[in-house]
Amino acid sequence: MTLHQVFSVTHTLSGALCLIAFAYKWGDLKRDPGNLALRALCSARLFNGLAYLMLAPATYVRIGEFTGSANLGTLLGQGLIVLAALSSHIMVLSWFCSPEKARQRLPYVALFYLVALTAMVALFFSASLPGSHPIDFEVHFTNQGASDAYLVVFLVTYGLNLANTALHTWPSSLAIDRPWLSQSLRLSALGSVFVLGFILGKLVGIVGRWSGTTALDSAATLWSPLMASAGSLVLVTGYTLPEWGAAASSWRGRYRSYRTLYPLWFALCRAVPGIALFEPRSPRRSLWLREPETRLYRMVIEIRDGQRVLRPYVCDRCEERLRRELQGRGYGANTDPLMEAYVLSLAMERKKAGLEPSDYTAGSGSRQSGTEFTDELAWLERVAEVYACLPSGRLPSPAPCSCTAPVPSPG
């Protein structure tokens, strides 16, 4: 593949990712339209996405053919990058300055970028730029006064913005104790450094041409765009991480809880048919459940239902004998999760053996104190973990008790 084809693909993908990030944050902006930082963030992603699409060689050439200005794609793309830089600077200003200070600085920041953009437009149209050069524009038109000035204005303006972003976000990421926000700021700084590699590559190629050599052109035509695409991916990830990162972490926690509870829940469903609203399925298939919160909630309820049905098979006397024997075997004083798991296992065995339950119905059989769902879930996870690892054949076998008896034979 030629560089023209490669960068037509990579630039289009980078643009699409930026626009996806814009659409993702747009939902937040609709809920909080007065948030200046959020408006600036959305604008930056939108302008960056459009810039990549303009600079994709396939689009670049068509813009030139349509307008009659072969390299207009450069001005459009890099002009949009300057607008994205302005938006990014406003975003950083809103993040790290008080509202009053941000309002005071905002006009000067906007003036700086708009003056730079105006200068770029004037210099671009005063330069002689024949032929379409979507890949090597910077090095091809070096040593022409107006185009050199244009490139210097663009690269310096964009480079200062990237440095400003990195210098603000990295130190702050180390001082914040909110993990997802800290990671977001760190990635924003890292992405800015990557894109600074784009600036550096362009400057290396330009300085090489100023020195009379083309040996450094690849820094500007190959490595520079690759650094820009890599940096853009990191920035998109960083700016959207607090939302989808927290959601992904929550989903992972729910799935882990589901996998932990599954062996105990499945055993109870087999021992007490009818307690499950949904038929037991592979825990891996549960990965694709449409409402994982509801499914996990149902699982907890169904485990509790199973406990209540099985409770009459093990009375307090059986439990107390089991507790003493477990403590005598060195399991320690706090055997509650083990007791809960073993009592359930014993009750299921007695039911399976055909023993008849007693009239003992003192509660649900749980030793967990707390009524919040999160507390109950955490407790049942501990019980389920112990249940899945019960050392078969090593736990005590309680003596016969009057709480259960064989099912009487007919007649």
Automatic annotation (TrEMBL):
Keyword Transmembrane helix: yes
Signal peptide: none
Lineage: superkingdom: Bacteria
Keyword line: Membrane, Transmembrane, Transmembrane helix
Domain DUF6545 positions: 251-387
Database matches in Pfam families: DUF6545 (PF20182)
Stretches that traverse the bilayer: 6-24, 75-96, 108-129, 149-167, 187-210, 222-241, 261-278
NCBIfam families (UniProt xref): MAB_1171c_fam
Record-given protein name: DUF6545 domain-containing protein
Organism this protein belongs to: Streptomyces corynorhini
